[in-house]
Amino acid sequence: MRNASDPTSDSTSDPTSDSTSDPTSDPTVRTDAGSRGRAVLLAKGIGLLVLAAAVLSFPSLAPDAFILSVGVVIMSYAVLATSWNFVGGFTGYISLGHAAYSGLGAYATALLVIHTSLNPWVAMLLGGLLVAALAVPIGIASLRVRGASFVIVSIAMVLILLLVFQSWGEVTGGSNGLRVPRPFDESVLRPEQHERFFYLHVALLAVALLTWWAIDRSRFGTGLKAIREDEDKAQSLGVPTFNYKLVAFIVSAFFTALGGGMYALWFGFLDPIFQFSILVGSYMVLMSLLGGIRSLFGPLLGAVIVGYAVEFFKNQYGDTQFHLVAMGLLLGIVVLFMPDGIIPALSSLINRFSPQAASIREVSAGELAEQRRAAASEGKDLDATEAEPTDSLPEGAKR
Amino acid sequence: MTESAGSTATDTRIGLATEGLTKRYGGVTAVDGASVQFHHGKVNALIGPNGSGKTTFFNCVTGMIKPDSGRATYLGDDITGKASHRIARAGIGRSFQLCRIFPRMTVMENMLVAVRSTSLRHVLAPSRSAGELDRARELLARVGIDHLENSEARDISYGQQKLLELAGVLMADPETIMLDEPAGGVNPALIDRIASLVRDLNAEGKTFLIVEHNMELVMSLSDHVVVFDRGRQICEGPPSVVQNDPRVLEAYLGI
Amino acid sequence: MSLFFQSVVLGVLLGGLYALLAAGLTLYFGVMRVVMIAHSAFLILSAYLAWWFTTETGLDPLLSLVVTVPLFFVAGVLMQRLLISRLRPATLTMMSVLLTFSVALVIEGMLGFVFSGTQRRIRLPYSGDSLELFGANIAVVKLIAFGLAAVSLGALFLILKKTQFGQALRATIQHPDAARLIGINTDRIAGYGFGLGLATAAIGGTALALDSTIYPSLHWHWIGPLMAIIVVGGLGSIPGAAIAAMLLGLGQSLLQIPLGTTWAQTIFYLALFATLMVRPQGFFGGRLAQRF
């Protein structure tokens, strides 16, 4: 509609689009899309309610204390994966060493509780803030250069902290571990403890998700996503890329540390080898990637799947080398075959079956665009046929 | 300045300028002491044979790469070696050769990336505010792709992507717009549309700096032409003068 | 004083091995911008193969190189062709990290599965022998390991400098687009580059097996220092990596006297952070990278 009334566009010979075959330029489709938008919103609202109800009713449905504790572990993973996704999902910078921040948060909380008379929850918050402060220099060092250094520093952080926490025995308890006093006294029984911590983790998760959502729809979030797609281009549009990445990284470290701190208070015992573990860091990556790093609930979904699988295997077969292999294979498969995760795959499946589906024509147009870019990046000159309407492209794409 | 298609004044104000700008890659000197002045408020063109350092010059001026020596100024302010987001906010927007858009964001999201202010309130505000959306739709309509608002940018045609890139740059409201081969790889009808957009925007006061190989377009569109060869300016002036300069022919024919 | 001298010699010997392994890592990064996390996992795999070869046949572990070097070269080429090249160029660096990381996990897991988590060590007739060198006491196996590393590094240098393949490889590292324009098949070169990189891991692993106790998760102790080395040396520069390896190996060895082995390792990470803060492009990359 806007198109027709626009003086700059010549409706008879629009050079960029074949207006007769384009469904979105048809006014009737537009209003359809409007009502469909409302329906989607409603479906989303209902989905959210169902999800919340399912999560909140879990403790009362869990048959025994063990299953309940698995639930706590999964929620803890969900907090960590969602926190990881602040940097991984928005900016596309993959950190394999986020266990460094959960581990630091756990130890900071534990040491504050042990050595000061702080309330454990205040200690946890303070621990999170301390880790966030530490993330500033780490972020400055690793985010100035693109990509590779960030990954290298992320791995180095876990390895160095493992070294330090194992060796610095008089403070951290070293390899003997560190016992963390419980926030609830002994009269609260085991299942009751699990139940409380389940809800506490859910609350923390909700805060993290809300923050992610708020960033996602802000200008800041748009800038971060632009960095993920093309960092140079984003910067040329005025996005202060380094500052944006740094802030996202600090927020991520903060929530990861809170997740670690809460885990410490629940589990009550810390061992460097499990806290500063590359494996824990890679769980966060796998969970987020599997669920979908571009989706709000992707990491949560991934945490439920991977967390359940991990606990199941541990329970059935114990801690064997086999689960390293399984973990490696699963990560490799996800990276190679479904780097976008389950949620985008599902939503495109749903789109395919709905009547307003993104048609096959559009999908192939996208692929053609990709091929053209690949051809272009090989330094070949683009000829004029490339700007023809997408329907007539296959000739050009055969090259 | 002899010919002037500009709508306002006939006097020449220097906008973007460089002095002895140099960039080397290993043994190759891509930009070799280039001293260039572009006219503010006009349509400037930068032409030259392939490999004459035009794109490298572009990248040095817009902060994508750091020059080895020399100076770049914009309206008298030193912008040498500044980060590209600072240069963008100083009022210089740019497009890229071969067109760079954010492929996995929607057309509308592409429009909302441009940053005009770094105040915390601006940054943390929802990016889809009514004002922003209206502005974006207006610009999309202006380049003629507003019906594609919700498509993913990778799904639209190459010509549409070029228009989207231009519209996205306009969202930042730059005074000066640098276009790297705006007519590269697009069909004649679209070239006409881009040319008329440039003319209209220039009439509204935007300065243009265009790197282009399509001579017909350059000569019809620009007020001021700078010719590059081997990383430095060999000639400048209005199109009619440059066209007949023997040095230009020499550079292109490689005599 | 002799303790100091001993540390210097040990540092140089260790630095040689680091240099060889870091050269491999640099090759992957150079040809494909890939941070190859599995490098040290292959190192340990090769060490296990050497150990297994010796315990099964009773022959010298150095002989296992005849099999492992070609095997690893082929594995490298296949890994590049079948796995790495499938990734989208836009996200190559990040996704390749995950992919090679998952390979590392699989190797570690399989080693644990097949050989169990028990610590292993090769017993050789000359294991306990050592040489007196200006008052320093140097184990023969360490000298052999260093010799192996030095010879391999020299060979690698000659391949890169003198052969046509080496020229193509260097061109691919420095400017892949230009290399493609002058007719170099950069995909194939990248595959061979990967193969060469893994071959260094095969040699390094055998050298490691001579005088170290090995266990499946040992590779994590190697990947951190190696990563630090290639950043300090300037990503993509082989001479830079070699110099950084020597300096940091020496530093680690010297710091072991006052601080002990664990804390001495932190020198790698301190150097890594210092480099990124002061000179993110690395210390020896710039000028040398162009000459190489």
TrEMBL record, chain B:
The keyword Transport applies. Transmembrane segments: none annotated. SMART domains: AAA. It comes from Nocardioides astragali. Residues 16-255 form the ABC transporter domain. It holds the Pfam family BCA_ABC_TP_C. The keyword Glycoprotein does not apply. This is ABC transporter ATP-binding protein. GO terms for molecular function: ATP binding. Keywords: ATP-binding, Nucleotide-binding, Transport.
UniProtKB/TrEMBL annotation, chain C:
Pfam families: BPD_transp_2. Signal peptide: none annotated. It is found in: Cell membrane. Keywords: Amino-acid transport, Cell membrane, Membrane, Transmembrane, Transmembrane helix, Transport. The chain crosses the membrane at residues 6-27, 34-53, 65-84, 96-116, 136-160, 189-210, 222-250, 257-278. The keyword Membrane applies. It is a multi-pass membrane protein. Belongs to the binding-protein-dependent transport system permease family. LivHM subfamily. This is Branched-chain amino acid ABC transporter permease. The lineage of its organism: Bacteria, Bacillati, Actinomycetota, Actinomycetes, Propionibacteriales.
